[in-house]
Design a protein that fits this description.
About 80% of the residues lie in helices and about 0% in strands. With about 120 residues, the protein is mainly α. The mean pLDDT is about 80.
Length: about 120
């Protein structure tokens, strides 16, 4: 936990918060022996990527998952997820746990029974 105090902020986080100069310092600290030109080009690429992501997500909502081509993608993902759950794989892969649990219960019972029989 103490190490987190000394870790630099993420440059992408700083760029998203419009703290460009702090992002430059963070890139310099994370980059090691990078020249100023390399740091500036990295910073420019990050700013450009942030702008593209911002423009891409502007005006979108969760409702868009159920429209047009995204509806088909949403259906495929939901059916795939439901197929994993409803196929019974939970029971198939947890049978070992159930068997082990039952074995431990029966072995405990037999130990208790044998212990009881010895003291009679």
């Amino acid at each position: 936990m103490i190490i987190c105090w000394f870790a630099p902020e993420s440059p992408y986080y700083l760029i998203r918060k419009d703290r460009i100069e702090e992002a430059r310092v963070s890139i310099r600290r994370l980059g090691g022996n990078k020249t100023d030109d390399q740091i500036n080009s990295t910073l420019a690429m990050m700013v450009h990527t942030n702008k593209i992501e911002h423009d891409l997500h502007a005006g979108t909502s969760y409702w868009d998952c159920f429209k047009g081509a995204n509806l088909r993608r949403t259906e495929i993902v939901c059916l795939t997820f439901m197929g994993q759950i409803l196929s019974g794989s939970t029971f198939a892969y947890s049978s070992c746990d159930l068997t082990l649990y039952v074995y431990l219960l029966t072995s405990r019972r037999s130990d208790v029974f044998l212990h009881y029989r010895r003291h009679e």
